[in-house]
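I am writing to request your help with a piece of structural work I have in hand. A protein sequence and the structure tokens that stand for its backbone fold form the material at issue. Please examine both parts with care and let me know of anything in them that strikes you as inconsistent. The record follows directly beneath this note.
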Amino acid sequence: MAVEEIKSWIADSRNIVFFGGAGTSTESQIPDFRSATGLYQTGSKHAFPPEVMLSRSFFMERTAEFFDFYRACMVHRGAKPNTAHEVLAQLEQTGKLRAVVTQNIDGLHQMAGSEHVLELHGSVHRNYCMGCGKFFDLDHVTSDETMVPRCDACGGIVKPDVVLYEESLDWDILSKARKHIAEADVLIVGGTSLTVNPAAALVGEYGGDKLILINQSSTPYDSRATHVIRDSIGKVLKALVS
């Protein structure tokens, strides 16, 4: 019954927004963070927990160790878009989906063909010299796994354009995401625990009555959702737009 109602909402809407987290990419073999098999639960060879190693202070003080962890756990060169990414790209092409707001840094939405993507936490595919601002692609960061990546122009450290703990989100991107969500007819939230702010709080900007929450576990926003679906995001999205 829920699926049929949501399908009718999608058919009638020209202003759908998707807000997604790490669970959107787990079917692309990229681990999430907080599930039983997630990055924060399974541990690693590293001496510090992921929350510490992904902080600004750790990056500045232990740069080589940061990149050792970052390359091993945060960069997934072989990952490909899954059904969820593909369905969202197709929905955008029909003119119904206005924006994808994502907490992910893997770039899989763009790889699938989505153009209107707001990356709240940045992207592994963008890297900048902290000295002169020169841009570098992912290859520059991953080509030598024993070295801290350096700028070939000024010698500065090349930092991934990802938002670390202790860093603020890009205000312009956050503002655009807030506006899209506030104005949406239908808001689909998928694959996120909705526990990390300020990103999670964006769902609170939605004032409509067509909030669909697709996640394997409960979230703080379940009671506010019109429909809560506990299933694979790719499977659900494919059913909703078929």
The chain is about 35% helix and 15% strand. The mean pLDDT is 93.
